[in-house]
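pasting for ref
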Amino acid sequence: MNVEEIALAFDCEGATLIGIVHRPESPSSRGVLSLVAGGPQYRAGCCRQLVYMARDFSAHGIPVMRFDHRGVGDSEGKFLDFEDVEKDLAAAILAFKRAVPTLREVILWGGCNAASGIMINAYLYPEVTGLIITNPYAHTEATQTVVVRKHYMRRLKDPTFWAKVIKLRFNPLPNIRSALLSVFKRVIRNKPNTDGGETKQVRPFTERMLSGFKQFRGKVLLVMSGQSLTSEEFDVLVANSSEWQKAYNSASISRSELTEADQAFSAIEARNKLISVARDWLIKQQHD
């Protein structure tokens, strides 16, 4: 199928955002809008995953839009991180609908903290009828403690770990640095306001994820990586919370486990499997 790749520039509260629409010659009425994860990434995604996904889906008649939200890639504006992408998603959905006039439903795609941002906000948009989320970021001190303990218990049973220790190839400094940085961030976050103004009460993002997820009524494909600590943290969060379990079990979720995949699905086989699983799920939704 012939597919156009169209560059877009569109407005979000005075900032110009940049996106690419993959529009098949005969597009389906349901399209996919991808939200890029945080960090030094842009609309191509880690390892160009979003490009491969968009070209695969659009070749099967599914229109796709990938874009840079504010402060990311080629888009203007202040970087607000994954917790504050509500307006960016709304602007991108509108631009997507204008570029593909036959579009009636939107599926949001995101991994890591993009998945978390989607879970926070998806219920706000009437056009959004489904989510494809991978390894949602759900880091808290409690989940980190459980996962790190399990991780190092596994490593202590691994002969290759002890081989590194004996050969002096095990470097604990990155882990120590990470722990110290976590403590520093916690101290700064809890530091009282001394400028005479009121201290802003920030609601934990995992609570906002739960609230948004409980209100979303569409279908969800959750793809989890077997080699990802982020994936493991999310499962710990759900397992240790009756509210999360209730929301998780009541949602219309299809879950797929890619046991050999890492957090970013960086191996070609893992990336192709992710795209295949998601494409099959999308096609099934169209026929249901």
